[in-house]
Amino acid sequence: MLWSDTLNPHGRAISLGAYALAAVLAVSELAILAMALHPNVHADYRAYYIDRTTTCLNRDAIGSYSLGQTVSFRSDGAKRVAGMKVCGWSGPAADGTHSLGETSRLRLQIPPLRDGLKATLQMAAVIRPPQMTQRVIISVHGVSVHKVTLSGKQPITVSFVIPHAAFSDASTFEMTFDYLD
Is the pTM of this model over 0.85? Predict the structure, then answer.
């Protein structure tokens, strides 16, 4: 714009409007940058996507289970198990459901109980040379209830007692599998 055009009132209004628009855009960009650098998100989202402190993204899944019932994690039980798997599981295969990442979780709706529970699982190790074993810590509501070291390709039966104190105040039963190796 020429200096002589600054005396034109319409040219000055257009020029001021353009500067105002540029200022609004700059402030908007700064606000977006601030939100990107310091997002206000749920703790589960932050841990999985931003901080990468977990490989298990929580989902609102609560499966149903009747005490004493056997649940198959193979293809034949896929529909039943889908509601129980919170995170860290692949789809079912012929040899069972494979875990993904460092942690897997199951969540079940349970009736009120007066005593502890006995859990029986069939588990197989995921071996990647030079590793020869796989260590697993099983927790219920954050309380460690069993540690197992798996080896070989064949599944083994693992039984353990879950103390009532681990789930006494809960209406849901959340079991976590942490894979150390």
Answer: no
